[in-house]
Specification:
Structural class: mainly alpha
Number of helices: 10
Strand content: under 5%
CATH superfamily of the largest domain: GntR ligand-binding domain-like
CATH architecture of the largest domain: Up-down Bundle
Number of strands: 3
CATH class of the largest domain: Mainly Alpha
Number of domains: 2
Radius of gyration: 20 Å
């Protein structure tokens, strides 16, 4: 466990439970807690200087969300990656994002602020491309969410956002190699050009290939890569207080 002790004043249990939940989830996403790591309820309570009630609420919420497993005689464990599950989520992404592109083809997107912002982010020379893994992951996530949101279907965007949240932990590992960052810029640029030029079928095919490549990279993730990610995270930042 790498959660820094809290120095904050006392607060309501429900607020504390939310803060502990967010902290633990961030620790999982940032690989300060790795799949298979075990810890006790008491350990969390001691480190965050909270009673067991809000800690227990946060832990069970994380279990419901699929991030933790509870062992009643031996504490809690970060859930191991289910790669088949992640691949299925990537397949659903393809369906939703392809449908979004079809809707965009029926809309007037000239002068659309969303696409103006996407052009400024992705249609840039190599010297202007972001190289930080975490930043590129966030930008990549925003690219795909922006396309779905621009299509104007609220429920489609909601479902896509839920999937985005679930695959975020895997997505960050997709950018630990520089060639993947370079490929993402190139592929996003191709997709944008196709959308703006009303070549919808080509845009859909490019998008599908782009997501399929990310899905393939998921299968290459190893425990060693996770440990490297944890080490990089430890160097980049110190775990915030809960």
């Amino acid at each position: 466990m790498q959660i820094a002790p809290s120095q904050k004043p006392k607060e309501r249990p429900d607020n504390m439970a939310e803060r502990i939940y967010q902290q633990l989830k961030e620790d999982i996403f940032e690989f300060r807690l790795l799949p298979g790591d075990r810890f006790s309820e008491g350990e969390v309570a001691e480190r965050v200087q909270a009673s067991r009630t809000p800690v227990r609420q946060a832990l069970y919420r994380l279990e419901r969300d699929g991030y933790l497993e509870v062992y009643f005689r031996s504490g809690w464990q970060v859930r191991a990656f289910d790669f088949n599950y992640f691949e299925e989520l990537y397949d659903v992404r393809i369906v939703l994002e392809s449908a979004a592109l079809a809707r965009l083809a029926q809309m007037d997107i000239k002068g659309n602020q969303t696409f103006d912002a996407l052009r400024k982010t992705w249609l840039v020379p190599p010297a202007a491309q972001v190289q930080d893994t975490q930043q590129v992951s966030a930008l990549d996530e925003r690219f795909h969410c922006a396309l779905v949101e621009a299509a104007g279907n609220v429920e489609m965007a909601r479902l896509h956002a839920e999937i985005t949240e679930k695959i975020r932990i895997i997505r960050r590992l997709d950018f630990t190699q520089k060639p993947r960052i370079e490929a993402t810029y190139a592929e996003h640029a191709q997709i944008l050009h196709a959308i703006l030029q009303r070549r919808t079928e080509q845009a859909q095919q490019l998008l599908k290939s782009h997501i399929e490549m990310s899905k393939k990279e998921v299968r290459k993730i190893t425990l060693h890569m996770l440990h490297v990610a944890r080490q990089r995270s430890a160097i980049r930042t110190v775990a915030p207080d809960v």
